[in-house]
Q: What sequence folds into this?
């Protein structure tokens, strides 16, 4: 296997897991929007593409590259509008979503079928 394919696959998986953990820790303990907020649930949809990512399915990587943009949008909006800890956590969310996006695009490009 091409080492770049392995690197992009592992990068996608690591970025998704880091984004998942960040969303739960952020909204449950570090800086919830308000006490008792259930906004940590936003992390659960990140589990949907996990089986396809673990199996290396190219189609999953293709739609994940667009799917992760929802977390990018939230990160940008909250880093723009929030202050303090929440702003820094939103910047980390933005970085992680860009990381996942880049890794998925690289994986999808490197695993495309070659023309005959």
A:
């Amino acid at each position: 296997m091409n080492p770049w394919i392995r690197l992009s696959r592992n990068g996608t998986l690591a970025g998704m897991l880091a984004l998942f953990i960040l969303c739960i820790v952020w909204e449950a303990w570090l800086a919830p929007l308000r006490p008792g907020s259930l906004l940590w649930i936003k992390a659960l949809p990140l589990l949907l593409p996990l089986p396809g990512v673990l199996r290396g399915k190219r189609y999953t990587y293709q739609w994940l590259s667009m799917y992760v943009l929802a977390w990018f949008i939230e990160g940008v909006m909250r880093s723009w509008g929030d202050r303090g800890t929440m702003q820094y956590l939103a910047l980390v969310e933005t970085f992680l979503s860009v990381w996942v996006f880049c890794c998925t695009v690289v994986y999808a490009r490197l695993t495309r079928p070659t023309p005959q």
